Structure formats: structure tokens, C-alpha cells
Design the sequence.
């Protein structure tokens, strides 16, 4: 009887049947991990496909190295080059890649049961933190950009409106535009009621002379990338 919590790789070496089983299970677990990654998250088709295939690739590499120190060093050097051929990702994407590689390493050692258990635990952790109350609060966080004429005092002109529609706000940046004839203000804020966005913007328009206003999803600078 096959014990999935023990290595399925025979002492005599890898067999074609074991190789196929490990690769297929890696693809299955990688698919599950990629589906979990899409939960309440922005993603691209190429990244999801890569995340599903990566565990199988790592599994095969570990199977082929199989104690060969020279080959292991060469593989480590090859993987390090990937960092310089890829665009920087978000912290969640990098975490998903590490999880996929970790699962592939376990599969490469032949421990199907531990790989499945690891995938389940990581998946549950991702689902828990994605649906955490703090994550829901982040949906109310916004970036606000307002253009005002130079004769308008920006220090407190919008304070009354911001207090009515937000639970907190902070002026992050002020810069001039059009040879100093305009000011562009950048705020970080947390809305009280997302359904009141239009009323919020309409009241801001009455203060800034109907100049440009932009309200977008919160995008912190240089804090979501490693």
C-alpha cells in the first residue's frame, strides 16, 4: 500500500511511473494554488498559468539533480537569473511564487502527502487573510487628486467636505502645474460610505472651480514591492 506521507521515490532511483505521478500531482496542486491566488486579487492570465506550472518544473529539477552537488549549484545559478529577466511583482505575487516553489521542492523529494498538506495550509492562510476585516477596510482606502487654481488656499479649503465623507484623510503631496497657475493636491483617505462617491466628488467640484478631480484605488508607493 502506497503511503503518501513517505517518499514514493524507490531506493533504486526514479522510475517512469513515479516520475509521471509526481509531475501530474504537482500540476494538480499548482492549479489549486493558482486558483486560490485569484481570490480577491488582481491577476493576469500569464501569471496564473506560470504559478500552476512552476511546481511541476521545480519538482522535475529536484528529481534530476537528486544529490548531484554540481548540478544543484548550476540550477541555483540559473534560477537566480530569472530575477533579472522579470518585472518586479507585488508582495503577494512573490509570496505565491515562493509557495509554489516550496511545494515543488516537497514533490521533488517524493512526499506527495506533505506537498498536498502544505498546499492546503497555505491556501487556507491566503483565503483567511484575503477575507480578513483589515482587507475589507482597505477597499475603502482611496487616492484623491485635486487640481485647484493658484488663488485658492489649499490648506483648509476642503477640510469640511473631507470630514463629512471620510473617516480619515491626509494630504500627501502638493505640486504646481502650468507655470504655477495651478496646484495639484494628492490625498490618501478612507471613505465612510463608498456609495456616496458621486456626492463627494460633486461637492469637491464646487470648491475647485470644476477643475480636474481623480478618485482611484489606494496605491501605496514602494511598499507593495520587494
Sequence:
Amino acid at each position: 500500500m502506497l503511503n503518501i506521507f513517505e517518499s514514493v521515490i524507490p531506493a533504486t532511483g526514479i522510475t517512469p511511473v513515479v516520475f509521471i505521478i509526481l509531475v501530474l500531482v504537482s500540476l494538480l496542486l499548482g492549479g489549486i494554488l493558482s486558483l486560490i491566488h485569484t481570490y480577491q486579487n488582481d491577476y493576469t492570465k500569464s501569471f496564473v498559468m506560470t504559478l500552476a506550472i512552476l511546481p511541476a518544473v521545480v519538482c522535475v529539477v529536484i528529481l534530476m539533480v537528486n544529490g548531484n552537488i554540481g548540478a544543484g549549484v548550476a540550477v541555483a545559478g540559473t534560477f537566480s537569473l530569472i530575477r533579472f529577466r522579470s518585472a518586479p511583482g507585488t508582495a503577494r505575487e512573490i509570496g505565491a511564487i515562493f509557495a509554489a516553489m516550496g511545494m515543488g521542492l516537497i514533490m521533488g523529494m517524493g512526499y506527495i502527502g506533505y506537498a498536498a498538506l502544505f498546499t492546503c495550509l497555505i491556501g487556507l492562510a491566503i483565503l483567511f487573510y484575503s477575507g480578513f476585516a483589515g482587507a475589507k477596510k482597505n477597499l475603502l482606502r482611496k487616492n484623491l487628486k485635486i487640481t485647484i487654481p493658484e488663488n485658492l488656499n489649499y490648506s483648509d479649503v476642503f477640510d469640511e467636505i473631507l470630514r463629512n465623507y471620510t473617516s480619515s484623510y491626509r494630504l500627501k503631496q502638493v505640486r504646481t502645474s502650468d507655470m504655477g497657475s495651478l496646484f495639484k493636491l494628492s490625498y490618501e483617505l478612507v471613505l465612510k460610505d463608498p456609495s456616496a462617491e458621486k456626492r463627494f466628488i460633486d461637492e469637491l467640484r464646487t470648491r475647485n472651480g470644476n477643475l480636474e478631480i481623480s478618485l482611484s484605488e489606494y496605491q501605496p508607493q514602494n511598499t507593495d514591492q520587494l
